[in-house]
Amino acid sequence: MESExxxxxxxxxxxxxxxxxxxxxxLGVPLGQAEISRFxxxxxxxxxxxxxxxxxxxxxxxxxxxxxxxxxxLILIDALKRASANSITAVIPFFGYAxxxxxxxxxxxxxxxxxxxxxxxxxxxxxxxxxxHAAQIQGFFDIxxxxxxxxxxxxxxxxxxxxxxxxxxSPDVGGVARASTFSQRIHASQALFxxxxxxxxxxxxxxxxxxxxxxxxxxxxxxxxxxxxMLNACNRVLEEGARSVIACATHAVFAGDSLSxxxxxxxxxxxxxxxxxxxxREFPAMFTVLSVSELIAKAIYSIHNHSSVSALxxx
Length: 315
Ligand code: R5P
Known about the structure:
Blueprint: E1 8-12, H1 17-27, E2 34-38, E3 44-48, E4 56-60, H2 68-82, E5 87-92, H3 111-122, E6 126-130, E7 145-148, H4 151-159, E8 167-170, H5 176-185, E9 189-199, E10 202-209, E11 216-224, H6 228-239, E12 244-252, H7 258-263, E13 269-273, E14 287-290, H8 293-304
Helix pairs in contact: 1-8, 2-3, 4-5
The structure holds ribose-5-phosphate.
């Protein structure tokens, strides 16, 4: 896919190099050379090890915890800016620090806006993210921001199963638009839970809108953090008479030992993507991991060649 006179240059931080390598391979380019190490006290030490003057550069780095990942992204952008790259696109498969995106109570921060400011001030010209926690986070950036979605990929995967009259369920009100993208693709009806978050690791499913009785239910969400949302939703739809339950979540965070809770759950399948990488993590057999590398590679190619990114989501 590479253009000889206008080469695409992909750099990766350390947070998800396997994904960056797949993106680069799809585009037919080698990963850019960056030397990333640590000073003896643990601070990040970085150098771009090749010429990028005048090039349009794409930096792949999710910003999940620890904040070192975000810091590495900022330092990479700074280094590329000072090395005279023509443009820098921050490709953020998982945009962390997104959950505090509004003040729900007094004296709370708006961390998502702070992070957007940091990325912009560091020198990014554009941002590409995948399934932002809330689509309106795009507006926190005063630079172009594309919000890709894995829902189309989930839909394509589910379609192959030939389920009869499935239902796509959003486990909370905030995820309805995302679940709609999914349900429309597979011509399924939609359902919704009204969820109350009691604390960062406890949720209460309050009421169900829609019909799940005797149906195959697909719960679609942006992320699984502690798993409370998905696990509670699964139990509740089964109580309501669902025939089977499948989980689809873009970002496989799985805090603590929450992954093991899924192995013991009643989900028939849990489908996630590779926006996050945790060395040594092994998913239980009921998991399917879809790669977002092609989606990201196509978005980069479109941006690079000034063509439509939204065309990627059209049937
Ligand atoms: C919440 O608004 C999000 O869409 C997810 O439902 C949430 O982040 C999942 O978190 P947990 O797995 O901890 O319930």
